[in-house]
Amino acid sequence: MSWESIYKASWQSIDHKHRKKYGRNFVSCEERYERDFVISLIKEILPFYARVDIEKAVDDCCASLEAPRPKDVFWQCVKDKLQAE
C-alpha cells in the first residue's frame, strides 16, 4: 500500500466526531481519538514502520504545524519525517 492509500482512506468512523471548528479536511491533534486513528491507520497500511516512529512523526507534525492542519499538509509532514529516518 502507499501514502496515497492513507490519504484516501475512509475517515468516516471519526468524521462524525470531528469538531465543527475545523471540519473534515483538517487533522485535529488536540483530539486523542483522532491522533490514535492517524497512528493506527499508518501502522495498518504501512506496517514496516515501527509504531514508536509513527507516534514520534505524528507528534512532531502536531507540534510544528499550526492549527488548523489541512490533511494533505499534515500527511506530507508525517511522510517526510518517516522517510527521513
Describe this structure in words.
Helices cover 61% and strands 5% of the residues. The model has no long low-confidence stretch (mean pLDDT 83). The chain has five helices and two strands; from the N terminus they run H-H-E-H-H-E-H. With 85 residues, it is mostly helical. Helix 3 packs across helix 4 and helix 4 packs across helix 5. It has a two-stranded antiparallel sheet. The radius of gyration is 12 Å and the shape is globular. The protein starts with a helix and ends with a helix.
Structural class: mainly alpha
Oligomer: single chain
Q: Report the C-alpha radius of gyration, rounded.
A: 12 Å
Proportion of beta-strand residues: under 5%
pLDDT < 50 runs, ≥5 residues:
none
Mean pLDDT: 83
Span between N and C termini?
19 Å
Count, helices:
5
Number of beta strands: 2
Helices and strands, in order, run as HHEHHEH
Q: What about the largest sheet?
A: 2 strands, antiparallel
Helix content: 55-70%
- Shape call: globular
Which strand order does the major sheet show?
A: 1-2
Overview in brief:
61% of the residues lie in helices and 5% in strands.
Reconstruct the topology from this structure.
Blueprint: H1 3-8, H2 12-15, E1 26-27, H3 32-45, H4 51-64, E2 69-70, H5 71-84
Antiparallel strand pairs: 1-2
Main attributes?
2 strands, 85 residues, mainly alpha
